[in-house]
Amino acid sequence: MIKLEHVNKTFGNHQALTDLNVTFNAHETTAIVGPSGSGKSTLLRSLNLLERPESGLYHFNDQVIDFSHPLASKDVLSIRRKTGMVFQDYNLFPHLSVVKNVMEGPVQVLKQQPDAARQTAMDLLDKVGLADKADAYPGQLSGGQQQRVAIARSLAMDPEFILLDEPTSALDPELEAGVLRVLLALAQENDSMIVVTHNMEFARAVADKIIFVEDGRILFDGTPSDFFTKP
Ligand code: ADP
Ligand code: ADP
């Protein structure tokens, strides 16, 4: 479980998050929706400590971080381990093959044996429908395929939560489908996911919970059926 209490984040004199209180449950998919510039990405990035709010509490299970104190690097490392971020623009290593992209973290960071890491990577590539692209390079893949590799790479680190920031917004609609299918499969396996998305169809179909953010505040926190039926 991830819980934020009274979290505030400013950029200069712009308040991006105001007194935010929210809980993200494990084994659920939460969709964060809302207008452009409302603070969705800042919220997501705060969960991975890519952004540092000035005040408030961050709970990750029993671990508590008080944003009003300097962050301890061991807390940052531990939170980064437990939260895998998937970016809008994939961020793959262009000089590494697809399977090496997926193996890199497990071998370099988790110190897994290369053979075992390769096997896990191949299983994950199979899961995202790209086992046949293992030896290709990112530049040879479509955007949708690259994003599926990025999801496999995130899963390879075995995070407790997967954070996805507009995972399909750089893709043409016809390339979106493969990525959405992968996310739907992960949701059905009860993986813990937090997805910033503009895709309301996806939010309605896949999310267990919707968070609607506007102007740095949460205006709705509840089920998709309530979100989509209430006036
Ligand atoms: P969203 O993801 O909902 O589009 P963001 O979280 O990216 O919104 O941004 C929220 C607000 O904070 C916007 O007004 C944006 O311009 C501002 N903002 C985000 N990141 C920065 C930054 N690094 N420096 C200054 N302002 C920022
Ligand atoms: P992209 O390859 O850019 O994602 P598509 O969304 O059209 O473009 O997907 C390409 C193909 O990969 C589709 O025909 C899709 O059915 C196939 N595919 C096979 N297995 C999977 C899977 N597990 N998840 C997603 N797509 C898959």
UniProtKB/TrEMBL annotation:
GO terms for molecular function: ATP binding. InterPro entries: AAA+_ATPase, ABC_ATPase_HisP-typ, ABC_transporter-like_ATP-bd, ABC_transporter-like_CS, MetN_ABC_transporter-like, P-loop_NTPase. Residues 2-231 form the ABC transporter domain. Its main location: membrane. Keywords: ATP-binding, Cell membrane, Membrane, Nucleotide-binding, Transport. CDD domains: ABC_HisP_GlnQ. It is found in: Cell membrane. It is a peripheral membrane protein. Pfam families: ABC_tran. It comes from the Bacteria. This is Amino acid ABC transporter ATP-binding protein. It comes from Lactiplantibacillus modestisalitolerans.
